[in-house]
Write a sequence for this structure.
């Protein structure tokens, strides 16, 4: 597989990645280690919560999204890192047994003004369960190497 560079990311739909199955055991393990709130650990307490049942941590869902991004294309992208996540919105709970897919759109792709060999690609990602319900939206830029020919032309 070839390495993806800045020029490979045009605004619009980039792809759908997954599915990734999430088990009850994973939810409990992640919550026990990183987000031990009752709605993520205890089915009885979760049933009394506004989520009305055991749900995975939003941070667990973000981790699943990152895995789908990496396996889908980041792992073969000339990524130079990310300055951070612009926005994360949790819209519906992650449930045991969910099969998560990730829709990825390129919201923006622009050349860096200060580094001609670098582009900044902003992705909008939506995680959905098998029923198509949007569970989370995330907007995040990454810095991506530009091809040498393109970088030299902009100088």
């Amino acid at each position: 597989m070839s390495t993806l560079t800045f020029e490979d990311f045009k605004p619009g739909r980039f792809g759908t990645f997954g599915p990734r199955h999430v088990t009850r055991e994973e939810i409990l393990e992640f919550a026990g280690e990183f987000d031990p709130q009752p709605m993520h650990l205890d089915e009885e307490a979760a049933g009394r919560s506004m989520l009305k049942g055991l749900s995975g941590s939003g941070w667990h869902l973000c981790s699943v999204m990152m895995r789908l991004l990496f396996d889908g294309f980041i792992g073969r992208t000339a990524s130079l890192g990310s300055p951070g996540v612009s926005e994360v919105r949790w819209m519906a709970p992650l449930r045991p047994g969910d099969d998560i897919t990730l829709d990825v759109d390129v919201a923006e792709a622009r050349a860096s003004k200060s580094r001609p060999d670098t582009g900044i690609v902003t992705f909008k990602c939506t995680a959905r369960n098998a029923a198509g319900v949007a569970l989370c939206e995330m907007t995040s830029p990454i810095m991506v190497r530009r091809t040498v020919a393109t970088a030299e032309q902009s100088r």
